């Protein structure tokens, strides 16, 4: 039997993966909204708006699930993260609030007039900033090494997240999300002109994400020694790195030959593998080197109960999610057009 | 401003803001499906338009509720990390359950909003039902978690740390079990009255518009049923507070000294120097009778408790009084509505009633906000009554006035926009409706 702590760490990783693949792509779509230009600008905006409509609320809940699992199962880690990363976390939630509200103001308003352009801009801008902050937060947690008794405000609340490594992770998160969104959007439309636009963007984002992935990896040598150690000390680490590079190259190939289904599969696998590579390398640390999933975990009974609730919830959630996607994404996700 | 005060104000502000959106997202789905169900039964298009209009408005509230709720789940840690490290293992489970309720709610709201032509009418109505149900579940669970802070259960203290943790006992705490239905009723009463109030206003201008007549009836019936049950549920709750948090109840009721045959007091201003209430109106024996069903029952006074554990007396007592007053006002309006409907059978003819309903539009929301102030400030100086004081739970992060101002500005901005959008929403309705009517007539 696998330990409770490990099981919950795996659940966290699964939820994080879903958040990146679904919620992350929604952020990415916002980025393309901002970058939309040319004669089909309006069509691009419409495509993005329609693709998000029925699903973005549900996609957002993954983040809430992650936070609640964290504070139920690993409460001291949640407390430490909340203290040291107070500033970027606050900025992140402000970004999330503005993005969600702006989207709702734009799309559920009863009248249609000029002000909608402003909501669109706010939506796009906050979509750009939030993923970077999310990446910075993840990067800082990965790097760890927080001082136990900081001497100054700067050391206690700023120092750890204004480092090259977290910033690089922030940009990587943004590019990966944009990459996912571009690949998804190709399959959301049957308009060839739009497909071509997002195909080019997807290729650019794929290449860029591959390069950034390498940069993050090398910055990690000094910036996040535990991660680096976890990735370079064992065979899995090597395979995973090869795998992500392989998926990037394959995705570029499929995009060039317009095999969009395969391209999307590769993009999903690349992002999934990146997250799991991080998870495996980080194991068993939550914030290295002091806080692990073992020394921050709740008592056994709580862990058992939460796992039980999560399993029960999953039985409810996945059929409902499939139902949702069958209704609105039958063509793009389930491929029921050929 | 001290950081502790800034943290408390920020928490209160975020909660007070979120709750408005949460209440609307909890209650509106029921109104929507009632309208849709009427449409399926009668085939009258006005009901369909009502359902669709309400759905669009709800979507805005739901989205703002979702993002402000997200703020809260982070802010619990950002402001009270020590509390969360302490309470997470005990009460965190409630929030994980809530997470799945949010999932179902968001998924089926997506289907409801965008699925009008994509799923069968029955499946669509059922999707609305799931939204309504999961909204109520999430409200129930989070209020039970709050109840645990009032009557902590499910752990024992060993060496200063909670041990023998039982999250189920914690979740099923005695306060929460009665607070939760009181809150759900508040959401339905407040939203029902607010929506009815808006349509009453428009009915005064367009008395014969069936759109507003139907909408008014649906909202009013939901609001009235809840408003009649609300004081009953409040009475049960007050009895429980008397039993388990006697200090809080004494403050609510202005009971300074322990007394047999305590009167029910109305009004009153707390005189902190002489430690008495000035200008109170007393109904003899009524409080003892209410709490113990015995006119000579004993009611504890707050002077029996150490002064350092008193909450701010004036605020708590005033807040509680206003809530109860509003509760009776709303119940009175509900009984009036019932009398008009079943007695004279023409509720739309009474301009006085419609005007009263317009005036009552914000009442439920005011009662809720102020009821929460009574509950939460009445819990001070504790976060977890008897175990953790608020001052011990606050984050070490300095400069909390900065986020306080920032979020204050953010919420003000959102509130203004939402209000303005709702005005547009309401203003747009009659004209478009008349267009459809004339289209059908021709
Ligand atoms: C529409 C809103 C509304 C109305 C009309 C009332 N209440 Fe209320 N009340 C609430 C909305 C509310 C609330 C905001 O939802 C509270 C705050 C905490 C809670 O669970 O519910 C609450 C709390 C609350 C508490 C405190 C519980 C505690 O501190 O643990 C008591 C004793 C009552 N109520 C009693 C009453 C009575 C006797 C009412 C009779 C007329 C009444 N309420 C009307
Ligand atoms: C919408 C409903 C609520 C409102 C309007 C509200 C209001 C308030 C207010 C006014 C305070 C500050 C009290 C003071 O410092 O004097 C406060 C504090 C707090 N509330 Fe609530 N509350 C609500 C619901 C909840 C719920 C559901 C929870 C948790 C599950 C909760 C948790 C807290 C915590 C942790 C604090 C900070 C500690 C404290 O000051 O005691 N509240 N709330
Ligand atoms: C009395 C207090 C509260 C009630 C009755 C309440 C109720 C609700 C309801 C019905 C919703 C769903 C509707 C919507 O998304 O707009 C909601 C959303 C949410 N609430 Fe609250 N809530 C309360 C306090 C809190 C607190 C203290 C927290 C934080 C821990 C919280 C966290 C959330 C979150 C994260 C969401 C968003 C879910 C989503 O994305 O759909 N709520 N709340």
Name the descriptors.
heterodimer, A: about 350 residues, mainly alpha, two-stranded antiparallel ribbon, 13 helices, globular, B: about 450 residues, two-stranded antiparallel sheet, 14 helices, binds CIS-heme D hydroxychlorin gamma-spirolactone, binds protoporphyrin IX containing FE
Task: State the distance separating the first and last CA atoms of chain A.
Answer: 44 Å
Largest interface summary: A-B, 65 and 71 residues
Q: What topology, given as strand order, has the largest sheet of chain A?
A: 1-2
Query: Describe the biggest sheet of chain A?
Result: 2 strands, antiparallel
Helix-strand makeup class of chain A: mainly alpha
Unreliable residue runs of chain A: none
Fraction of residues in helix of chain B: over 70%
Q: Average pLDDT across residues of chain A?
A: 82
Mean pLDDT across every amino acid position of chain B: 87
**Number of helical segments of chain B?**
14
Treating each run of at least 4 consecutive H or I residues as one helix, how many helices of chain A? 13
- Quaternary state reads heterodimer
Rg of chain B (CA only):
23 Å
- Which strand-content bin applies to the residues of chain B? 5-15%
Task: Give the ordered list of helices and strands of chain B.
Answer: HHHHEEHHHHEEEHEHHHEEHH
- What percent of residues of chain A adopt helix (DSSP H or I)? over 70%
- Categorize the overall geometry of chain B: globular
Q: What hetero molecules are bound to the protein chains?
A: CIS-heme D hydroxychlorin gamma-spirolactone, protoporphyrin IX containing FE
**What's the main sheet of chain B like?**
2 strands, antiparallel
- Shape call of chain A: globular
